[in-house]
């Protein structure tokens, strides 16, 4: 069942989205070469607490960290630890927070100090594909219209979309129906209706789309060792288009 949010719930989602974005930007600015991923996660925990929020990821299916930090060939769900960020690394940060019972979920990839032109192009195309998807996120369209827009943008630039992980409905839980794939699979796809809140989140690989999981049971990496980037917004579907709930505050 796909839940439609009423005005009161939408107001709460706006607040959760605002806080998620605020924390994501704070953490993004904090990332520097030389620090460990644990330093980043602890900073994130502090900023989330400062907002009176709580991590929506910590403890979710026993996920052990406050945010997801995925470096270079890590696609999603990277675990914080002793790894040191090096100059030129690209770092995907995914922040999910609970505020008053509702979730805001947003992600971006940032460069540590600087990065190669190819890495920058990967990040730019991934963010652009997110906005191409958002442009299709309006009542009357189908989820597959979002998927198609993302996939076309990514593949026309020579990159590939990850299949195994997808966007999703979001609200009282991190993951609600419907699934929002970043590729077209030909399966019947739900119609978008006003009041739906969904997270659109392309995960884009510079090389091949295949991924594998590390032995830690969480970290997803590219099979070919190429770079991966991830951008995500939580959006509200309305009859005139999408309202981005995780827009810059
Ligand atoms: N990356 C997921 C998303 O944005 C959420 C991560 S769940 C966790 O939808 F448990 F891995 F943190
Ligand atoms: Co997320
Ligand atoms: Co998400």
């Amino acid at each position: 069942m796909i839940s439609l949010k009423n005005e009161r719930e939408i107001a709460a989602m706006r607040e959760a989205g605002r806080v998620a974005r605020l924390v994501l930007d704070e953490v993004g600015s904090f990332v520097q070469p030389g620090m460990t991923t644990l330093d980043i996660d602890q900073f994130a925990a502090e900023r989330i607490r400062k907002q009176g929020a709580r991590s929506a990821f910590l403890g979710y299916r026993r996920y052990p960290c406050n945010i997801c930090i995925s470096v270079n060939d890590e696609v999603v769900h990277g675990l914080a630890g002793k790894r040191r960020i090096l100059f030129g690394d690209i770092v995907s940060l995914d922040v999910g927070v609970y505020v008053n019972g509702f979730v805001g979920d947003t992600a971006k990839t940032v460069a540590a100090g600087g990065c190669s032109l190819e890495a920058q192009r990967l990040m730019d195309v991934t963010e652009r594909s997110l906005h191409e998807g958002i442009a299709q996120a309006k009542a009357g369209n189908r989820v597959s219209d979002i998927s198609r827009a993302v996939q076309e943008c990514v593949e026309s630039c020579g990159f590939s979309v990850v299949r195994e992980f997808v966007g999703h409905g979001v609200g009282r839980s991190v993951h609600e129906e419907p699934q929002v794939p970043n590729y077209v699979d030909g399966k019947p796809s739900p119609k978008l209706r006003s009041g739906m809140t969904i997270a659109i989140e392309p995960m884009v690989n510079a090389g091949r789309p295949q991924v594998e999981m590390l032995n830690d049971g969480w970290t997803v990496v590219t099979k070919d060792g190429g770079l991966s980037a991830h951008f995500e917004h939580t959006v509200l579907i309305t009859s005139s288009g999408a309202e981005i709930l995780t827009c810059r505050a």
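The pocket of cobalt (II) ion (ligand 3) is lined by residues 105, 168, 199, 201, 232 (CB under 6 Å). The chain has a mean pLDDT of 98.
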